[in-house]
Every structure is written in C-alpha cells, then in structure tokens.
Amino acid sequence: MRGMTQEILASLREQFPQGTRVELLRMDDPQAPPIGTKGTVRGVDDTGSVLVRWDNGSGLNVVYGEDVCRKVAE
Known about the structure:
The chain has one domain (6-71): SH3 type barrels (Roll), CATH 2.30.30.
C-alpha cells in the first residue's frame, strides 16, 4: 500500500493489539456494519488493515487510510 511504512505498521499494531475493543466511526462499503457497531480486534495485517470481529457477526476489516474506528473502554 502506498505510504505504508514499517513505522506506521508498528504504531498501528501497538495501538490496536489483539483483544482491543473498537467502535466503527466510518466505513465506505455497502456491506459495512452500522456506524457505532463495536467489535474486537483480531490483529493488524501487513497492509495496516485492522482485523475486527464485529459484534453483529461481520468480519470486514478497517482499511488503513479509508475507514475509521476508535478504541473503546469496556
């Protein structure tokens, strides 16, 4: 992916370790879970996408530079 560096990848993996709870803020995909859906991070892949198991059963990834999620405390 353009602009993806090892530093950015390391930062994303530090920010979103496996088990982190997140909330979806923006996803430009017709199959996207509703905004506000929460889920659990499964990891970060080599392109910087955050792999999430959404509480509604969806498995769509949060794509670096396109979609937005935030950490939530639960």
